[in-house]
Amino acid sequence: MKIAVIGAGAIGNLVAGYLKLAGQDASLVGRRSVVKEIQANGLRISGVRGDFKVAIPAAEKLLFAPELVILATKTQDIAAALKDNLALAKGAAILTTQNGVAADKIVAGFVDKEDIISSIVMFGATSLEPAKVVHNFEGSWIISAPLPGNAAEAGKIKDVLNKVFPVKVCGKILGMKYLKIFVNANNCIPAILGISMQEAFGDINTSRVSIAIWKEGLEIIRRSAIELESLPDFPLERLVKLSSLPAQEAAQVFSGIMLNLSKVPLYGSILQSIKRKRPSEIDYINGEFVGLAARQGLRAPLNEKLVEMVHQVEATSRFFTREELLANTEELLR
């Protein structure tokens, strides 16, 4: 199977590199700086599986017609990526990997719905330098159950992806995607502070903000009549139980979980974008809670404030102090 991974960030680099190492016909499409580095020195992967240097074809645009496109850009970059590559990508299976719930709808504006396979990645990676990626932690790769018209193709894709990550097929992936928003919603905090997740959540008061994000989000999801579905590596019961505990107790448990998530510093997707001087996906994560609330005639004041602070960091390149974060959110904590 000819595979093109469009988007040479953390997830795109990791997936493309592992597929190539597994003997698959994989190539990368990315920005010029990354492509030049890969062409000159290869793709470097380190982390939980060891250190690798991968020779992999890389280009700024598609140079061939793939059978599978793994779309690994940020949500806000999907439209531009598809426009640039549609002539060769049209007709291929398009696998979306983005956080949030907007990706499939955007892709559907360019290709047939039957060609879209939705997915959720539960493994973690960090990329702060071109063509270098750290695999922080393992996890499954969840793909949507195929439509009747693409069942055979989806089966082939599952077999290929299963060579690099354990694949799970799910019929209720939208409810899982909404739950994944909760998993990602705390990434805004290290992005606001400019520090690793371990540094951010080693502090109990900062972890209290995370629990409040979840509580506010759960109320918005309930009011929106959205049914959450458990993820293989993050059961719904964990979210509900932690959110129901007294704030200080919940913060202590959450802090312990985050401190043990990775042995190397973990920065989260939002901060990684900021460090690379790229717009983050905050509007598709915490911003999703804000948008859902607005559609119900409600507000999500804590998530509104955090989205605003991330955009301020993006605009000014100045991170907030922990004291400033707490001062901006203290009245909004429940």
Might you state the CATH topology name of the largest domain? Rossmann fold
- Provide the gyration radius in Å: 19 Å
CATH architecture of the largest domain: 3-Layer(aba) Sandwich
Question: Strands of the largest sheet, in order across it?
Answer: 5-2-1-6-7-8-11-12
CATH homologous superfamily identity of the largest domain: NAD(P)-binding Rossmann-like Domain
Helical/strand content category: alpha/beta
Shape: globular
What is the helix tally? 15
Number of β-strand runs: 12
Assembly type of the shown chains? single chain
Strand content: 15-25%
Strand and helix order: EHEHEEEEHEHEEEEHEHHHHHHHHHH
- Uncertain residue segments: none
3D structure, described in words:
The chain is an alpha/beta fold. The protein folds into 2 domains: 2-171, Rossmann fold (3-Layer(aba) Sandwich); 176-332, N-(1-d-carboxylethyl)-l-norvaline Dehydrogenase, domain 2, CATH 1.10.1040.10. The protein is built from 15 helices and 12 strands. The chain has helices at residues 10-21, 32-41, 78-89, 103-107, 151-161, 173-185, 188-193, 197-201, 204-223, 236-244, 247-259, 268-275, 286-295, 301-316, 322-329, and strands at residues 2-6, 25-29, 43-47, 52-54, 58-59, 68-71, 93-96, 116-121, 124-129, 132-137, 141-144, 167-170. The strands form 2 sheets. An 8-stranded mixed beta sheet has the order 5-2-1-6-7-8-11-12, sandwiched between helices. Strands 4-3-10-9 form a 4-stranded mixed beta sheet. Strand 3 (43-47) and strand 4 form a beta hairpin. The longest helix has 20 residues, at 204-223. The radius of gyration is 19 Å and the shape is globular. It starts with a strand and ends in a 5-residue tail after the last helix. The mean pLDDT is 94.
